[in-house]
TrEMBL record:
Entry keyword Lipid biosynthesis: no
Keyword annotations: DNA recombination
Coiled coil: none
Protein name as it appears in the record: Site-specific integrase
UniProt lineage: Bacteria, Bacillati, Bacillota, Clostridia, Peptostreptococcales
Length: 211
């Protein structure tokens, strides 16, 4: 370590991107105009908080439309020797069932009809025109356009927004953590749930009610 110059080391504080619900809907509209096949990716991400690799690897056989459940059982991964392939999830807690309601149900039905109308035969929920999955690399290209032409944006921030909105609305942290596929609630609280004005006001209101 005698050759290491500590004075040359710098800590760079990377400002987090905090999205609002209004931002999310702006993104939907923007993507619909420039990459219509990719819109469903952002909408499912918003409604479920799934990881990008999980959503890229989501197949129709893991979507139970009758019971309104998405079964997260696999993910899409790029391997140098094989290209993009479906692989097992990284951890036991990542495997989970995500329940959804009418809004996402309608979006998924519309997606099925859209693929049928375009005669796209694909096992993937988020499919390109050729039937292959929409990969993380495809989303990153769209994200660069969003950042350049619309607003500061990271796709992963939609996952964080999903968690924050649930907590703001009063959802139990344990359930939110399980929905995101976290191994414990500490990760959900410290990394994913932002201290928004609504949460601050809620804390003040709770205190006021017990005076």
């Amino acid at each position: 370590m005698e050759y290491v110059n500590i004075n040359k080391l710098r800590y760079i504080d990377s400002e987090d991107v905090i999205l609002t619900k209004e931002d999310a809907y702006k993104v939907f509209s923007f993507v619909r105009d420039i990459k219509p096949m990719h819109e469903i990716f952002y909408k499912v991400l918003y409604h479920t908080g799934m990881r990008l690799s999980e959503l890229s690897g989501l197949t129709w056989d893991n979507v139970d439309l009758d019971k309104r459940i998405i079964k997260v059982r696999q993910q899409m991964q790029f391997q140098t020797s094989k290209g993009h392939i479906l692989v097992l999830l990284n951890t036991k807690s990542s495997g989970r069932d995500i329940h959804f309601w009418n809004t996402l149900y309608d979006e998924l039905i519309n997606q099925k009809n859209k693929l049928n109308d375009l005669k796209i035969h694909s096992q993937f929920v988020c499919s390109k025109y050729n039937g292959s999955a929409i990969y993380k690399e495809d989303i990153e290209k769209v994200n660069r356009l969003i950042n350049r032409e619309l607003l500061r944006f990271k796709a992963h921030s939609v996952r964080k927004l999903h968690a924050t909105m649930l907590i703001e609305a009063g959802a139990e942290i344990k359930n939110v953590s399980a929905r995101l596929g976290h191994s414990n609630t500490r990760i959900t609280y410290e990394i994913y749930v932002k201290n928004t004005n609504r949460l601050i006001d809620k804390t003040v209101s709770i205190f006021e009610s017990v005076l």
